[in-house]
Fold this sequence. Notes:
With 102 residues, the protein is mainly α. It is 49% helix and 10% strand.
Amino acid sequence: VADAHHRLELVWADGGYTGSLVEHCLAAFALVLAIVKRSDDTRGFVVLPKRWIVERLFAHLMRTRRLARDYERSTTSAEALIYWSMTMIMTRRLARSHSARA
């Protein structure tokens, strides 16, 4: 990941990734792994900082049925369908912001 995305410096992770992985990411890849933890004393649903970004992405992919089934035989076709799904989202956002300005 660091080779392909050389500007990447910070990665957010779930509380399950605590431990030696934090130090390993910093030493091996020069990446800061920030753990988003849930407080132990909270009950029920609580929006975690930065976690909603990932959950929103999963919701968008689920809406275009990309996470519901895995029919693709190769990872390149699965990747292409995710690009297609994200392109639909971005074109809708661009069209919406353009029409709002008019």
